[in-house]
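Q: What residues go here?
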């Protein structure tokens, strides 16, 4: 294996004159007069290490071996670092020995130097990680994932693994994948003819979780501050560039916390993550800025440095009504804010990140805390330029009687939520939390246009390969 100090990232930081062994996959090869230049990458950094094979080494290797050094081949080279006379890099490795571990025949290797569409690259997800674009995407995803844990761990939050199989539909919103061990060819039936789930594995219908929030609340009311960071599943058949059937979500939950505290954590969290990406992913961001979206770094800086504006939903609607625009979706108090409204608010009306609070209860989930006006709930959505909503959260209803009447209002059954309601009977306290979709955040950090290209192996309607 490659040890710290031996990654190409480290070799590129070393001094001329040092001997090093580099291992990786060939990006490209160029042949000059009696000399061969190979760009080698091991995924540790955006830049390739330039390998120089001079005439003496090349003839020692022989034509048969030399011919195997093509794009995609796995190569190990030992040599001495020298200052590079060429432009584009400061150091290069003068090869003394070279071994081709695994050739990649040029006639069939599916990943050539340029010109591939994102759609084509999705079809070769077993190889696309070796490309410049996906190398940069997955390094940023890695940095963000680590930063998420650092943020919460540094603040004393407990990391909780909430279940992936659940019997409760978090928001009653539908879009659930069923989980069953029944024989679909011979389903057991009740006398009324319905599927008899009492004979299924769990003795009742079960699903893949759409959120870990309800269970995270249990942990907040025992560990004070907790967070989940795991996969969630939605069977929504929306073939959009922003929806996956399987995606990762971060959901902190804080006891002794009201909506103001929730907003403060959300702002601090988002800014922490964006600052971390700006600091640690400079080369990868250069690439995204140059090749994918020229505004990406500026927006990240803007959001990382600007204090967020706070608006109530009612104030937001007033701003939209004053806007004098032809909205695709009408602006009415009581309606959901659409992306066009959200982007107008943050990009034009206020020109900074916004947290919108106190939404009409009809458009938000049953567990959000009812305000004294009886019409609005303590919800908050964080809106940022270029995409609109990036975080959704709320203070939770901690009063048992109000929660029960909200369940009824929303037409939800009481029984599956018995434990969620009982949490409010014993040691209840004000608490709040929010959810951030990891892939939406990575799209934001990279400027990538399709969510399928920021998760290693996307699951979408009709597609679950690799
Ligand atoms: P949208 O309106 O975009 O479908 P939502 O209102 O359904 O989002 P929530 O239920 O609040 O989203 O989920 C929390 C977060 O999870 C969202 O802010 C978003 O970042 C992310 N998210 C939701 N659905 C998906 C999905 N299908 N694929 C990827 N991320 C998602
Ligand atoms: Mn949705």
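A:
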């Amino acid at each position: 294996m490659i040890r710290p100090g031996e990654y190409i990232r480290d070799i590129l930081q070393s001094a001329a004159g040092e001997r090093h062994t580099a291992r990786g996959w060939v990006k490209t090869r160029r042949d000059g007069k009696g000399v061969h230049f190979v760009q080698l990458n091991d995924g540790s950094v955006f830049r390739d290490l330039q390998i120089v094979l001079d005439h003496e080494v090349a003839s020692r290797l022989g034509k048969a071996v030399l011919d195997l050094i093509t794009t995609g081949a796995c190569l190990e080279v030992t040599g001495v670092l020298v200052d590079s006379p060429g432009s584009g890099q400061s150091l290069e490795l003068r090869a003394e020995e070279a071994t081709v571990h695994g050739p990649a025949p040029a006639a069939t290797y599916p990943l050539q130097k340029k010109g591939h569409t994102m759609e084509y690259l999705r079809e070769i997800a077993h190889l696309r990680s070796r490309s410049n674009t996906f190398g940069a995407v997955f390094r940023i995803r890695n940095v963000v994932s680590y930063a998420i844990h650092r943020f919460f761990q540094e603040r004393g939050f407990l990391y909780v693994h909430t279940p992936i199989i659940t019997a409760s539909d978090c928001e009653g919103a539908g879009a659930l994948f069923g989980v069953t061990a029944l024989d679909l060819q011979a389903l057991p039936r009740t006398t009324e003819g319905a599927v008899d789930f009492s004979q299924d594995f769990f003795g009742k219908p079960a699903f893949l979780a759409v959120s870990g929030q309800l269970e995270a609340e249990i942990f907040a009311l025992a560990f004070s501050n907790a967070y989940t960071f795991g996969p969630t599943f939605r069977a929504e058949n929306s073939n959009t560039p922003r929806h996956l059937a399987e995606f990762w979500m971060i959901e902190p939950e804080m006891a002794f916390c009201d909506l103001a505290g929730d907003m403060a954590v959300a702002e601090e969290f988002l800014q922490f993550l964006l600052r971390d990406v700006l600091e640690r992913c400079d080369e990868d961001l250069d690439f995204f800025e140059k090749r994918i979206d020229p505004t990406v770094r500026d927006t990240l800086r803007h959001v990382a440095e600007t204090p967020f504006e706070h608006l109530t939903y009612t104030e937001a609607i007033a701003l939209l009504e004053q806007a004098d625009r032809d909205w695709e979706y009408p602006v009415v108090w009581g309606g959901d804010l659409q992306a066009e409204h959200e982007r107008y608010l943050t990009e034009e009306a206020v020109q900074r990140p916004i947290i919108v609070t106190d939404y009409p209860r009809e458009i938000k989930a049953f567990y959000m805390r009812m305000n004294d006006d009886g019409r609005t709930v303590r919800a908050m959505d964080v809106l940022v330029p270029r995409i609109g909503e990036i975080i959704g959260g709320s203070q939770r209803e901690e009063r048992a009687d109000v929660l029960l009447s909200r369940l009824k209002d929303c037409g939800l059954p009481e029984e599956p939520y018995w434990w969620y309601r009982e949490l409010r009977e014993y040691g209840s306290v004000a608490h709040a939390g929010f959810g951030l979709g990891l892939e939406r955040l990575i799209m934001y950090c990279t400027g990538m246009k399709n969510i399928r290209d920021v998760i290693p192996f996307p699951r979408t309607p009709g597609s679950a390969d690799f």
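A: Context that may help when evaluating the design: The chain has a mean pLDDT of 95. The chain has two domains: 8-102, 129-175+210-453.
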